[in-house]
Automatic annotation (TrEMBL):
It is found in: Midbody. Residues 360-453 form the Ataxin-10 domain. One of its GO terms (biological process) is cell division. It holds the Pfam family Atx10homo_assoc. InterPro entries: ARM-like (IPR011989), ARM-type_fold (IPR016024), Ataxin-10/CTR86_families (IPR051374), Ataxin-10_domain (IPR019156). Belongs to the ataxin-10 family. May play a role in the regulation of cytokinesis. May play a role in signaling by stimulating protein glycosylation. Induces neuritogenesis by activating the Ras-MAP kinase pathway and is necessary for the survival of cerebellar neurons. Does not appear to play a major role in ciliogenesis. Gene3D superfamilies: Leucine-rich Repeat Variant. This is Ataxin-10. The lineage of its organism: Eukaryota, Metazoa, Chordata, Craniata, Vertebrata.
Length: 521
């Protein structure tokens, strides 16, 4: 294949070669001279385009040049597939540096015609293929392309080109290179990736870059978060939610990363939690700072549903107090005027409320309940903050807070477990009329006087002679069969699923329940 051959003949030869390299055997037997010829075509074509740009005059056969470039890269792309030998030969010939130079050159051409787009797409596909499973090629691409190539191509107007660029970046990244993104000049690459995901939600490569690489570096997440707009922060938090919700086993190193994320997010929540009160005004229903606060709470709830992160967050300074105070402020705001924090129960069941703050109080109660799980210090702290009466005051069915009564049941269970002080407080509140007895009854609890003490216990009507009863409520609740055991009473409250809606299953424990489950994820 001589470089001096007519363009049409060269195109035909390149197309035939690209088709041939779709098969494994021709790839494995390809000689180095083939790739030398392709390199020569790319070098000559690149020089011609470069000279034309320098002279600021039109290139009459630009279309032919672009066609040649596309077919060259199709050959190289196909020849790399599952063939380390060809990857090695191409790298040693300098095809990676030639390709990166040519991509930058093509990017500078102002005419965004289809032939140019195709040439760019094929060139990036080649870089992705030569890097696949080949550390030496990844090193070479990183030296030639980072950060300049990624800074320019990740903002290109063509979605496919951006996608292929993300593929190359993902393939080349490792833990050391992720840390290079911390450099102020390189951080923009990470910003571009997140923006690609935000604008192209079906972009698998940008999703993988964030979840498999960027989120594994807490320092990078913190630096990135500071540079993001509120909408972009919401996107990042949603991706963190995906990662935190992954129930697959993780290493101790990954656990340490999550703990550091938890610290940062708890700090952010404590700093910005007051912003949610802006949502009491109809005009501020889309306040972005408030929406970030809501998403922060969602992630913290999910984190406290994981035992390894729970213990750390239970000891995080001020988080529990912030959750209780925010619940108090939103609850008070809902009582002072009619707004999204006002408890309502007027829906037919066919309507849906689309307000972003729907469920916010439910999630606050969920977080409080999680933070008090088997933690005497936090149980007592909620007592001191007068948070128990606040939770009891949120036991009514509320269309603005789905399942709030169920989360309240869960929180009260965790607050009273092996805590006589909190049990006695609820009993005294009911006796004095400060606690709604119907709310306690909905929880399946009743107050009994035994000697000189008031005892909080499971109501008799929940316990049948067959040691099992199902009491349905009028709320739907999807659940995991979590067991909430009142060990002192030898009674369990189980969340169970039924087509008719939420149900509580109360049963005697024989022998007493030893379930460790106390967190509903």
């Amino acid at each position: 294949m001589a470089a001096a051959a007519l363009p049409a003949a060269r195109l035909d030869n390149l197309r035939a070669l690209a088709a041939l390299f779709r098969e494994a055997q021709p790839r494995e037997t390809a000689e180095e001279s083939v790739f030398r010829d392709i390199l020569e075509i790319l070098t000559c074509t690149s020089s011609a385009i470069e000279q034309t740009c320098k002279d600021s005059c039109g290139l009459a056969d630009l279309d032919t040049c672009l066609l040649l470039i596309s077919e060259c890269f199709r050959c190289l792309r196909n020849a790399c597939v599952e063939c380390a030998k060809n990857q090695h030969v191409m790298r040693n010939l300098g095809l990676i540096s030639t390709s990166v130079h040519l991509i930058k050159l093509l990017h500078g051409i102002q005419i965004k015609e289809e032939l140019l787009l195709t040439a760019l797409r094929c060139s990036l596909q080649f870089l992705g293929n030569i890097a696949a499973g080949n550390g030496d090629s990844q090193n070479s691409i990183w030296k030639c392309a980072f950060p300049d190539l990624f800074l320019t191509i990740l903002t290109y107007s063509d979605e496919k080109i951006v996608t292929y660029c993300c593929m190359v970046l993902f393939t080349c990244l490792n833990s050391e290179r992720v840390r290079e993104l911390l450099d102020p000049g390189n951080l923009t690459v990470a910003l571009h990736v997140l923006r690609v995901y935000k604008e192209q939600l079906d972009s698998e490569w940008s999703f993988l870059i964030v979840t498999e690489h960027l989120l594994k570096c807490p320092e990078l997440v913190k630096a990135l978060y500071a540079k993001l707009s509120n909408q972009e922060r919401i996107t990042l938090l949603e991706l963190m939610m995906v990662k935190v919700s992954d129930k697959n086993s993780v290493t101790s190193e990954e656990m340490n990363v999550f703990v550091r994320h938890a610290d940062f997010l708890a700090d952010c929540f404590q700093e910005k939690c007051g912003a949610v009160l802006k949502l009491t005004a109809a005009a501020d229903v889309e306040d972005e700072e408030a929406l970030v606060t809501i998403r922060l709470l969602d992630v913290l709830c999910e984190m406290t549903s994981n035992n390894s992160q729970l213990e750390h967050l239970q000891a995080f300074p001020g988080l529990l107090e912030t959750a209780v105070d925010t619940l108090r402020l939103t609850h008070l705001a809902g009582k002072q005027a009619v707004n999204i924090f006002t408890a309502t129960h007027a829906m037919t069941g066919q309507e849906e409320i689309s307000h972003p703050a729907v469920g916010f109080k439910s999630h606050l109660i969920r977080l409080i309940g999680n933070l008090c799980y088997k933690n005497k210090e936090n149980q007592d702290k909620v007592y001191e903050l007068d948070g128990i009466s606040l939770i009891l005051d949120n036991c009514s069915i509320d269309d603005n807070n789905p399942f709030v009564s169920q989360w309240a049941i869960y929180a009260i269970r965790n607050l009273t477990e092996q805590n006589e002080q909190n049990q006695a407080l609820i009993a005294q509140m009911e006796q004095k009329g400060l606690a709604d007895s119907s709310a306690l009854e909905r929880m399946g609890l009743e107050i009994q006087q035994r000697d000189d003490k008031l005892i909080l216990r499971l109501h008799d009507k929940y316990i049948k002679t067959k040691a099992e009863a199902v009491v349905a409520t009028d709320a739907a609740f999807l659940c995991t069969g979590a067991c909430l055991c009142f060990g002192d009473l030898g009674v369990c409250l189980n969340f169970i699923c039924s087509f008719g809606g939420f149900a509580l299953e109360a049963k005697k424990c024989y022998p007493p329940c030893t379930s460790k489950t106390g967190i509903i994820a």
